[in-house]
Specification:
The complex is a heterodimer of chains A (about 110) and B (about 110).
Chain A: E1 4-7, E2 10-13, E3 19-25, E4 31-37, E5 43-50, E6 53-57, E7 64-70, E8 73-78, E9 87-94, E10 104-105, E11 109-113
Parallel strand pairs in A: 2-11
Antiparallel strand pairs in A: 1-3, 3-8, 4-5, 4-9, 5-6, 7-8, 9-10, 9-11
Chain B: E1 3-5, E2 10-14, E3 19-21, E4 24-26, E5 31-38, E6 44-50, E7 56-58, E8 64-68, E9 73-78, E10 87-95, E11 102-104, E12 108-113
Parallel strand pairs in B: 2-12
Antiparallel strand pairs in B: 1-4, 3-9, 5-6, 5-10, 7-8, 8-9, 10-11, 10-12
The chains are: A mainly beta (about 110), B mainly beta (about 110).
Chain lengths: ~110, ~110
């Protein structure tokens, strides 16, 4: 009965490769997010989708491309991986995208680029 | 832009002692305030939130926080900590009327010493 689930939990890959991270939420929420947590634990928003529509697209290299096939899923595809992409990536959802709706996080995907 | 400051990056405290984790934010508009906890290798979980009303809010696991508008603070407190409270704690702020995203502090690592 996991609310926000993302796969894989760990991802180790070489520079230049392309990889995807999948996220699904069963909470019936309208809005989903991708956050990046760096080695210093700093959390930064990357993207936000509301009902499959892109709402927030922070300054992120265009090697990162989110895709939302339906409002319960938000996947993240990363092309030409670089060493600096190593981080923990968190998927999250909120009920309606309003700022008084708390975020519900997945358990994260630890990406290591070698 | 909104900024959130957690002054203490690490807080060691003995078991059963009280603890306060500090959070200050910069905003002149109405805000919503949140505290999240992150246990090792897990996502963030909501501890408590302030949306409106009473400035003292109670959350899960015996934590509480007080909103102080004049000091733009939202400090987290617990009167008696347990070993299981060892985790990373994040303060987050969103702007009530115009914002569409959350701003996170850099986190405070709480270590409870037996």
């Amino acid at each position: 009965d996991t609310a926000v689930s993302q796969t894989p939990k760990y991802l180790v890959t070489q520079m230049g490769n392309d990889k995807s991270i999948k996220c699904e939420q069963n909470l019936g929420h309208d809005t989903m997010y991708w956050y990046k947590q760096d080695s210093k634990k700093f959390l930064k928003i990357m993207f936000s989708y509301n009902n499959k529509e892109l709402i927030i697209n922070e300054t992120v290299p265009n090697r990162f491309s989110p895709k939302s096939p339906d409002k319960a899923h938000l996947n993240l595809h990363i092309n030409s991986l670089e060493l600096g992409d190593s981080a923990v990536y968190f998927c999250a959802s909120s009920q309606d995208g309003m700022t008084n709706s708390p975020l519900h996080f997945g358990n994260g995907t630890r990406l290591t680029v070698t | 832009a909104q900024s959130v400051t957690q002054l203490d990056s690490q807080v060691p405290v003995f078991e059963e002692a009280p603890v306060e984790l500090r959070c200050n934010y910069s905003s002149s508009v109405s805000v919503y305030l949140f505290w999240y906890v992150q246990y090792p290798n897990q996502g963030l979980q909501l501890l408590l939130k302030y949306l409106s009303g009473s400035t003292l809010v109670k959350g899960i696991n015996g934590f509480e926080a007080e909103f102080n508008k004049s000091q733009t603070s939202f400090h987290l407190r617990k009167p008696s900590v347990h070993i299981s409270d060892t985790a990373e704690y994040f303060c987050a702020v969103s702007e009530g009327w115009t914002g569409n995203q959350f701003y996170f502090g850099t986190g405070t690592s709480l270590t409870v010493i037996p």
